[in-house]
Amino acid sequence: MDTFYVTTPIYYVNDVPHIGHAYTTIVADVLARYHRARGRRVFFLTGTDEHGQKIERAAEAAGLSPAAFVEQVMARFRRAWQVLNISNDDFLRTTEPRHRKVVEQLWQRMADKGDIYRGEYDGLYCVGCEEYYTESQAEGARCPTHRTPLERLKQSSYFFRMSRYQDALLDHFEKHPTFVQPDIRRNEILSFVRGGLRDLSISRTSFRWGIPVPGDPEHVIYVWIDALTNYLSGLGGFDGAERYRDFWPADLHLMGKDILRFHAVYWPCMLLSAGVPLPKQVFAHGWWTINGQKMSKSLRNVVDPEMLCEDVGRDALRYFLVRETPLGNDGDFSHAALLQRINAELANDLGNLLNRSVAMVHRYWEGKVPPLAQDLRAEAVDRELVELAARVGEEAARAYEGNAPSRALDAIWELVRAANKYVDVTAPYSLIKDPAKKGRVGEVLANFLESLRWTALLVAPVMPDKAQELLAQLGLDAASSAAWPERWGGLAAGQPLPPPIPLFPRIDDDRKAALLGRWQQAATPAQETTKVTDPKPDTSAEGPALLTYDEFSRLDLRVGKVLEAQRVQGADRLLQLRVDLGSEVRQIVAGIAETYAPEALVGRQVIVVANLKPAKIRGVESRGMILAAGEKQVLALSALDVEVPPGTKVR
Ligand code: MSP
After folding, report:
1. Which H or E element spans position 4?
2. For 541, which DSSP code?
3. 580 φ, ψ (degrees, to nearest 5)
4. Residue nearest ligand 1's atom 10 by CA
5. Which entry of 308, 420, 466, 587 is 20 to 30 Å from 633 by CA?
6. Alpha helix ranges (H) inside 365-437
7. From edge to edge, which strands make up the β-sheet containing 216-221?
C-alpha cells in the first residue's frame, strides 16, 4: 500500500502556540488528510521540543522546574491542535524515554562511524537559536536573527565530522533536485554547503536540561541533534521498528524557512553518517507578519489560534491561512483580510451555492435529490460543467501533491464559481414555469448538487468539518467525506434533503466591528493602559492590588543605554532620549528634565519598560518608559551596579 509520512517541526515549549506554529501544523494536516483521501496509509507526526538552555531559562523565569514547566506548555500545544482539528497520528515529546533511546542509538551509530570526536569550542553563541555563530556571521557580536548580544561560550565539546559529508550532500542535491524546496531556498542551501561545511559542536556542558552524552554524562547532547532525531524516534527508531519499515524515509519534512538549514544540511549529514536513507523532501514555508508587523511577544495574543477559532470557526481560519499565501511565500495575517475572505469566498461563493441549490430542490423537486440526465453530454452547459469539474479535480490533486494547497483552493473556487454560473445560465426558476421542462429542471438541479458534492470532497482536507456539514446537507454520511471524487454522480436520487442551513453565516458590520475590537483589545497588554505621563498607582481601600506572577511577567523590562538626550521644546519636564535596547534603538520621552540635564544622561544605563504601547507626548512619539524613583518629581533614575549589554532582560 502507498504510504505518506509527513512531519512538522517539534515546537519549542518556551512559547505558547501562535499563528506561525498553527500554520505549519495546519498545512501538514491538510496534506495528510489529502493523502488519506487518496487511499494512502499516512503517518503524520508532530510534537514538542522540550530540552535545551532556552527551555531551562524559560522555566527558571516562570519559577518552575524544567519538568513541570514543559508539562504545562506542552499541554497548550496539544490542546491547540485539538481545537484546530489536527489529525496527527502521534505527538512526540523529546522528554519521553522512547525518544531518548533513539537519540542515544543515533549518537552511537555516528560514533561507530568515527564521526564524533572531542575537542574544545570557543565561540559566540545565541541561546535563542541554540547555535554558535562565526565572527563573520555575527553582526557586531549580535545574533543575525534575534539582534541580541551573543554570549561567548568556551567549553569542551563533542564534534560531529560534518565536513566529511559536504560532497555526499552536494551529490544528493544534484541527484534529487526537489530534495529541498522551494527552489529559492534550495539555492540558498546549495550556496551555504558549497561555501564549506564545518564540523558541528554537538554537546554542551553549560547546562543540564537535555539528554546526557552516552558514556560522558558531564555533557548533554546539543538540542538540535536531539530534536531532529524525533523524525526517527516517532517511528520507533531504526530498521527494527515496524513503523520505521512502513514509513521511512519520510515523504515530507515541513517547516518555516528559519530552520531550513538544520533540516536540509545537518539532518541529512547525520543520516548519511548513521547509514539511514535520507528523507524525500524538505520544504520550507515563509514567514507570517501580523497586520504588517513582525510578530513580537505582545502581538502574539491577537493571533492566538484558539481565540480565532472561537470567533470565526476553525475551518474558516484554516481556509484563510492556506488560501492567503502560496506555500513558500511570506504572508501577512490581517484580521480585516480574514473577515473579508470569510464573507466573500465562504459565506457568499460557497455558502450561497449550497443555499440556493438545496432551497430550489425543496421548491421545485419536493426536497428530494433529482436524478441526473441519462446523457450528460447531450447539453453543452452540462458537458462543460462536468468537464470542468474533472479538470478542477485533477488540478487540485496536482496542487495538493505538489505542496501547493493554496493553488488547490484556487482551482476549487473555479468550480464553485462555474456552478453558480451554471444555475444563472440554465435558470431553473424560469424553466419551472413550463410544465414540459420539469424533467430538465431536475437534471439541472442534480448537476448543481453534484458540483457541491465535488466541491465538498475537494475542499475537505482544508475544511474537514464544513465538508462534512455540506455533505450532510446533500444527504450523505460522514464516511463519504474522506474520499476523493472519482465520477460525476455520487448522490442517491430520491434521497430526501433536510432544509438548508447556512454553512458560513455572513459576518455583518456590527459583528465585524465587535470582533475587530476584541482582537485589538487582545493586542493590548494590561499594563499598556497606564498613561505614560500620569501614572496612577492602584490604591484601593485594601491597598495596592497584588499582581500575579503571570501579570508581572507580561512586563518586558530591559536594560537600555542612553545614546542621545535633548529637551522637548515647550515642555520643562520632558527629555527626548534615544536609547539602545540591543536589538533596536528607541525614542523615549521621559519626565526627568527637572532632575537630570540631558548631557548627564548620555552613556548611562537605565531600565526600560520595553513593551509599553507607544504614545505621543507633546507631539513627540515615545516608545517605552524609563523606570525612576519619586512620586510627583523624579528623585533618582533606575541604574545597574555593573554594566551589562543593552537589551538584557530585567526581572
Ligand atoms: N524546536 C525547533 C524545531 C525543531 S524541529 C526538529 C523550533 N521550534 S519553534 O517553535 O521555534 O518554531 C517551529 C516552527 O514554527 C518554525 O519553523 C515555523 O514553522 C513556525 N513559525 C514560528 N513563527 C512563525 C512565523 N511568524 N511565521 C510562520 N511560521 C513560523 O524552531
Report:
1. strand 3-7
2. T
3. -80, 120
4. 11
5. 587
6. 380-401, 405-426, 428-431
7. 203-204, 216-221, 212-213
- Strands 41-49 vs 11-12: parallel, antiparallel or unpaired: parallel
Dihedral angle of Cα 404, 406, 407, 410, to the nearest 10 degrees: 170
The CA distance from 2 to 375, in Å, is 36
Residue tagged 489560534 (cell numbers): 305
Q: How far apart are CA 309 and CA 305, in angstroms?
A: 6
Task: For residue 254, give the ligand 1 atom closest to its CA.
Answer: 19
Which residue's alpha carbon is nearest to atom 13 within ligand 1? Answer: 11
Kindly report the backbone phi and psi dihedral angles of residue 188, in degrees, each rounded to the nearest multiple of 5, phi listed first. -60, -45
Cα separation, 507 vs 613, in Å, equals: 30
23 CA from centroid of ligand 1 (Å): 10
Cβ atoms of 418 and 388 closer than 8 Å: yes
Could you identify the residue written with the cell 516562570?
A: 62
> DSSP letter at 489?
-
Instruction: From 253, 250, 249, select the one nearest 261 (Cα to Cα).
Output: 253
For the chain, report the end-to-end CA distance as a whole number of angstroms: 56
How far, in Å, CA of 647 to CA of 628, rounded? 18
What is the Cα–Cα distance from 254 to 263, expressed in whole angstroms? 9
- pLDDT per residue over 292-331, tens digit each? 877 766 666 668 899 999 999 999 999 999 999 999 999 9
Amino acid of residue 229: T
CA separation for the pair 339, 509 (Å, rounded): 10
Query: Please, are residues 156 and 120 in contact by the beta-carbon 8 Å criterion?
Result: yes
Return the number of other C-beta atoms located less than 10 Å from residue 359's C-beta.
13
Give the whole-angstrom CA distance, residue 601 versus residue 370. 83
Q: List the Cα angle 81/85/89 in 5-degree steps.
A: 70
Q: What is the DSSP letter of 213?
A: E
Residue 600, Cβ neighbours under 10 Å: how many? Answer: 12
* DSSP one-letter code for 583: S
Query: How much of the chain, in percent, has pLDDT values that exceed 70?
Result: 95
Indicate if 309 belongs to the active site: no
| CA 231 to each of CA 45, 90, 102, 267, 275: distance values in angstroms, whole numbers, following the listed order | 8, 11, 10, 10, 15
Contact between 138 and 126 under an 8 Å Cβ cutoff? The reply is no
Q: How far is the CA of 437 from the centre of ligand 1 (A)?
A: 59
pLDDT of residue 190: 97
pLDDT (mean) for 526-555 = 49
DSSP state of 190: H
What is each CA distance from 567 to 313, 467, 591, 605, in whole angstroms?
Answer: 51, 63, 10, 19
Burial (Cβ within 10 Å: 0-12, 13-18, ≥19) of residue 619:
exposed
Q: What is the DSSP letter of 481?
A: G
Angle at 418 between CA 417 and CA 422, to 5 degrees: 120
C-alpha cell at 357: 441549490
5 bridge partner residues: 43
Give which of 21, 25, 11, 30 is closest to 409, Cα–Cα. 30
What are the strands, taking DSSP E only, across 111-226? 116-126, 131-133, 151-160, 180-181, 200-201, 203-204, 212-213, 216-221
User: Do 414 and 350 form a contact (C-beta atoms < 8 A)?
Assistant: no
Distance CA 632, CA 591 (A): 10
Ligand 1 geometric centre to CA of 300 (Å) = 14
Q: φ and ψ at 9, to 5 degrees?
A: -65, 160
Give the model confidence (pLDDT) of 367-415 as tens digits.
999 999 999 999 999 999 999 999 999 999 999 999 999 999 999 999 9
Most informative mutation of 6, 7, 11 for ligand 1 (most atoms within 8 A of CB): 11
Which helix (H) or strand (E) is 616 found in, with range? strand 615-617
